[in-house]
Amino acid sequence: MVIDHINIYLGNVLHLPLWVSLLGRFVAPLFIFFIIEGFYYTHSRQKYFLRLFVGGVLMYGINLLSNILMNNTTNPYTKQFDVFYLFQGQNIFMTLALVLLWIWILDTMIVNHLHIARYTMLIIALVVIMPFIIISEGGPYELVMGLIFYLFRGNFKRISMGVTIFSILLFVHALMTYFGQVEVGSLYQTLTFDDEYMMITVLPFIYLYNGQRGGNGQKWQKNLFYYFYPIHLIIIYILSNIF
User: Fold this and answer.
1) Please, what's the b/e burial string for 53-91 (b: 16 or more CB within 10 A of its CB; e: otherwise)?
2) Where are the transmembrane segments (predicted)?
3) pLDDT digits (tens, 9 = 90+) for 70-113
4) In this model, does residue 155 exceed pLDDT 80?
């Protein structure tokens, strides 16, 4: 993850090769995998969601401040202020929170015998949340991964098939982008830019998962990522502005 973020913001300065972007494509799917695992293991799904959601709101604030201070609020095409660019930046917290909420609602519909009125309300909730997932960081891809990990949980063979098929479709899409459009660069440039097909590299890590919690259960280990994620991005944002 750190390498991926360094590549995004400092890759040109460090003259990193284009293939570096491929190295981190397993990270977000692995986060999603453990979000689904956490969905079943957590003592409170509500607190689990709120931790991620609050982290997402915090990251929006950090991105907002960073873009204002660095004057990254102008659309490079229209040369005008764009509110979307005001909040641009990394925010996997919000993606994880929204995917968790979507899966939670879906699970409620599948597991429980609901009255038609509540069932309808939950379907509406799924539809309402969908656009927010689509515009979140990697949202469409991670939602598909979340569905695969949720529906096939505990069955590595089916998870492998689902992830492989999805990755092949994304690879075909990348090829279609290259062969179907003009001035998109070389095939190498296209495949290292439209590179979500490399999410297939998450499979070895899932295979090695033994279903046990890592570490010794201390609170700092549980909360480490919640602190590390924003801190390392703040440092990278500052370095990006300096260089």
Assistant:
1) bebbebbbebbeebbeeeebbeeeeeeeeeeeebbebbb
2) 16-36, 48-65, 85-104, 116-134, 163-181, 196-212, 224-242
3) 887 777 777 777 777 788 889 999 999 999 999 999 999 998 88
4) yes
Measure the CA–CA gap between 136 and 87, rounded to whole angstroms.
11
Helix (H) or strand (E) holding 214: none
Q: Are 92 and 100 contacting, i.e. CB atoms less than 8 angstroms apart?
A: no
The answer to whether 30 and 4 have CB atoms below 8 angstroms apart is no
Question: Is residue 23 helix, strand or coil?
Answer: helix
Nearby residues of 58 by Cβ (< 8 Å), 6 or more positions away:
93, 230
User: 166 vs 211, which has greater pLDDT?
Assistant: 166
Question: Does pTM top 0.85 for this prediction?
Answer: yes
Domain ranges of the chain: 2-242
Backbone angles phi, psi at 213, to 5 degrees: -70, 140
User: What is the model's pLDDT at position 182?
Assistant: 63
Enumerate residues 6+ apart whose C-beta is below 8 A from 137.
28, 90, 91, 92, 94, 95
Residues with Cβ within 8 Å of 223's Cβ and at least 6 positions away in sequence, in order, are: none
Q: What is the sign of the dihedral through the CA atoms of 78, 82, 86 and 90?
A: negative
215: left (phi over 0), alpha (psi -120 to 50) or beta: left
